[in-house]
Design a protein that fits this description.
The protein is an alpha/beta fold. The protein is built from eleven helices and eight strands. Bound molecules: pyridoxine-5'-phosphate.
Length: 244
């Protein structure tokens, strides 16, 4: 059946914020990604607003034609924003000050009542809630108890352990892959819609996309990184043609 693709456009906002001006605009990136066939647009609204801003999620909620998924920490501030912006889906993630990117899945056991409350508030408005979670059945069983029925399995460890040359995968990479596969199967059986993401690139994504139970992948860094390289030639040629 094949996996759907949610494109994470945070890095376009990171580039914008490197100059604190109004371009490149993640709104433009969302439109291009959708025109290219993306099945959804994902952004992470961080507490420190270091890349994506409220202005971005407000506009995206109006113009995204596929599905808008906002990653956020399960805080009261974020819940209020979700209720106001009404994206199609919210993905609950842990957030630690100073981290370069999301490190690890959300600890559902430690945040169970907060998550349950978050899910029930958003459910009333028809907003789906997914939890970014490590491939750990104990955590996933607790996620089920909160009323959550969509999870995004954290593939960061698999991505870190998997070499560019997939044929030379070591034992650790293979065992992390088998864990993700097994957890995806069991979670699907429990009634979860199963997504996955983090660290996936143009090589390590293939085995993950082949797992039948995983229906959608959220990918950002590798896509935006590749775009900056394969788009560079045209950008240089355009500038040369303007000035010569
Ligand atoms: N899923 C979640 C929950 C994330 O936090 C991120 C990074 O923002 C991604 C997927 C995408 O990861 P990457 O940028 O490594 O593709």
């Amino acid at each position: 059946m094949g996996c759907k693709l949610g494109v994470n456009i945070d890095h376009i906002a990171t580039l914008r914020e490197a100059r604190k001006i109004d371009e490149p605009d993640p709104i433009h990136a969302a439109v291009i990604a959708e025109l290219a066939g993306a099945h959804g647009i994902t952004v992470h609204l961080r507490g420190d607003r270091r890349h994506i801003k409220e202005r971005d999620v407000e506009i995206l909620s109006k113009i995204v034609k596929t599905r808008l998924n906002i990653e956020m920490a399960p805080t009261d501030e974020m819940k209020d924003i979700a209720l106001k912006v009404k994206p199609n889906m919210v993905t609950l993630v842990p957030e630690n000050p100073g981290e370069i990117t999301t490190t690890g899945g959300l600890n559902v056991i430690e945040n169970e009542s907060r998550i349950r409350d978050f899910i029930s508030s958003l459910k009333n408005l028809g907003i789906k809630v997914s939890i970014f979670i490590d491939p750990d059945m104990n955590q996933i069983e607790h996620a089920f108890k909160t009323g959550c029925r969509t999870i995004e399995i954290n593939t960061a460890k698999y991505s870190d352990l998997t070499p560019i040359d997939l044929e030379n995968c070591g034992k650790e990479s293979l065992s992390e892959f088998e864990k993700i596969k097994e957890v995806a199967k069991l979670s699907h059986k429990m009634g979860f819609e199963v997504l996955a993401g983090h660290g996936l690139n143009y090589r390590n994504v293939i085995p993950i996309a082949d797992i039948d139970e995983i229906v959608e992948l959220n990918i950002g860094h590798s896509i935006i990184g590749r775009a900056s390289l394969i788009g560079l030639e045209m950008a240089v040629r355009e500038m040369i043609s303007l000035i010569s």
